[in-house]
């Protein structure tokens, strides 16, 4: 692994780490009032595009980061749909 | 511009678009209670790392997306510090 990918993995760890507390907080509090469904869906589609881009660019760090973020975004959409019904 | 960069730019537009309403909402409401300063700082440093990575990968879409997100993250940190004092 070259040093460019090390920078990429540091970036991946930092940005995904910053995102996970939001998922955890939403899961625990079930408070989805501050989350916008259209915004989450736009974000989700955007992450899919970044993932495709990461594959084309042969970027392991982008693939890793966007895979984790895709799951996070999916969970937030799921929570939003589930807890908004109440 | 090749079709890979088109995917990248679509990704860039979608993910940055999803982030901007948060900045606008925080600016208007001055409600920073839901924002965690350590999380924002970790995210900010992560975006700097992605920006550096984007330059090394010669990726115009990564450079564009991360520059905009860097400004957004900076503004959120600024709002957090400014409005938390009240």
Automatic annotation (TrEMBL), chains A, B:
It is a multi-pass membrane protein. InterPro entries: PQ-loop_rpt (IPR006603), SemiSWEET (IPR047662). GO terms for molecular function: sugar transmembrane transporter activity. It comes from the Bacteria. Keywords: Membrane, Transmembrane, Transmembrane helix. The keyword Membrane applies. The chain crosses the membrane at residues 6-24, 36-56, 62-81. It is found in: Membrane. Its main location: membrane. One of its GO terms (cellular component) is membrane. The keyword Membrane applies. NCBIfam families: SemiSWEET_2. This is MtN3 and saliva related transmembrane protein. It comes from Mariniflexile fucanivorans.
